[in-house]
Amino acid sequence: MAAIAVRRIQQGLPPFEVSQDKKKPYVVGFEDDEDGVEPGIEIGAASYGYSRLVKAETESGSVVVLPMIGAITRYGDLCSWGAEDYAQWIVEANQDKAVSAIVLEMNGPGGSVDGIEMLGEVVRSSEKPIIAYVAGWAASAHFWIASQARGIMLESNTTTSVGSIGVLAVHVDASKFYEKEGFKVTIIRSDGSDDKARFNDVEPLTDDLLAEIKAELQPIKETFIAKVKAGRPGVDASVFSGKMYPGGEAINLKLADRIGYLADSIAWANELAQKVA
Length: 277
Description:
This protein is of the alpha/beta class. It has helices at 2-10, 83-95, 116-124, 141-146, 175-180, 207-231, 247-252, 262-276; strands at residues 26-33, 36-45, 62-69, 99-108, 130-139, 151-154, 161-163, 244-246, 258-259.
């Protein structure tokens, strides 16, 4: 990332490209018609807090749709909300008497480890039913969270995929790039700080350091797998290699439950809410 930032600065551009298009949470209601209860339409949008969500008075209550679009970090950024935001909204939805259920609208590659276990626990412990709806993909951290919901619905048998159950760290050796661009980087550590920031993009990745990093990742992977097994009973053991699985195959392997669209997920959440009531 540092190398990319340097190149952009040399081109007279900001160090990183950001988007202002940050999808907001919204609430979907239900209305009675002669055929029964059907999903309604989007009735409002919120800005930065749950308190600004528009609520709909309906038969089972309002179904809150939380869009988990793009990579997830603990606190979010200009492009996406963070794990802390989602956790807070789910807690508030559980305290809101007008809300009956929640749908997580997912489409993303996962994210950072920090905050994901916490968010997964918030989803798992929600008293109001939560359904995970996956449009394009729910990989890694996205699937960790989805696996803790009451059910997972995929948009397509072929173009929607879930999985990537595993953990990785990325190391970029940018030393030759810096040298080519005329930069000589020297890391100076104080006496006794030999292990300080050894995982960087200037110094080589030694065999010993590689072994240490793998050892640090292993317990995170084990926790990830344990959470998926607990949230998805009967899941096939072959899925823990980090591979992605398309809709139909994912359902066969018990990584997901149904094929449908967002409205179907809302209807499913509503059905569960009526059973709980």
